[in-house]
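REQUEST FORM: STRUCTURE PREDICTION
Request ID: SP-0412
Submitted by: Lab K.M.
Chain count: 1
Length (residues): 384
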Amino acid sequence: MKLTIDNETLAEAAQWAQRAIPGNPPTPVLAGMLIDAADGQLTLTGYDYYRSARATENCDVAEPGRALVPGRVLTDLVRAFPKTKPTTLALEGTDLSLTCGTTHITLPTLPLEDYPSLPTIPAASGTIDGTALAEAGTRVAAAACTDETLPVLTGVEITLTDHQLVLSATDRYAFHVAHVPWKLGSKTKGKGKDKPLTDGKVVVPADVVRDAARILADTDHASLTLTTSQFVVSVPGRVATGSIIDGALPDHTALFPTEFEAVATTSTEALATAIRHITPLLGKADPMLLDIADGHITVRAGTDDNGRGRDQVDAVLEHGAPLSIAFNPHLLLKTLQQIDGPVVQMNLTTPTKPVLLYAPVQADTFRGLIMPIRLHNGTTQPNP
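STATUS: Completed
RESULT:
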């Protein structure tokens, strides 16, 4: 194998493939990055049995071939090479040589025969606006649980309908839901676990969704494949795959309230800033109180030991009576950060029932549901 490629292009491809290489691989061979050169193209692949990342770029292939080398080392090396110079990769016996300008590196290869077979890429279930899917995936994945003992809650559930995808995730305390239009594909070739789905639900690991968002940003056309065993998203030159998680999330349509006792609107950024101002006073489990009234929302919290604080933002109480409600400030801030609009609307029922948040101009695009904190004595500490 021998090829020459622009080094900046090589570095970007290596960084993408590196995403699927585990930091602490269960077997040495999974630390490897697969190099495949043929037909004027170079493909770099990382794989950990659960997800894969593949990058394909045009190059000058003098001798086609394949090799497996330590992925992290290769990535670090080519990132340090001059961006404006070409890099030549050549397989010499059991070593891979890299030459860029005056720099010459020799890397030992890993046993190619021990590398696992890569997942096949089934026909696409449909196509979608890459930027829209990236934004929705990032916002929804923020609510996914990080507790690996609850595997289904570490994923993003994707519901397929004729005209849109519904993405949802929850950690039991917050629930994020987004809707993205898509176009069903005309090809449904395949059978069994490789048959592309055109309806139903699957749960995809949240980290796979986040990785997919990185290649989808600023992309107006992407192919998406969902099967009973695999999630695949691809754009020209990049492919990400991930295994499906068994199980299903709670039905969000049964959890999201439809009738409210009060509705308030305020500046998204102003409310987030006020929360940041007061949060340093709180311990990990301490609540933050929002006093919601017509004209303003007062954010307050604190104890005698740690200090007390409050901040206030302008608000409009669209209807209903003033009320006070307590939140975990980190959960509230996390949801506010996913709302892409200057104004956030808060739909409330009682101080102990979930609160629905969204940007009024994007009510059909993204919504977040947050559980409040029930205070033991029904009140909080007095205002500072």
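NOTES: The longest strand covers residues 307-319.
Reviewed by: T.R.
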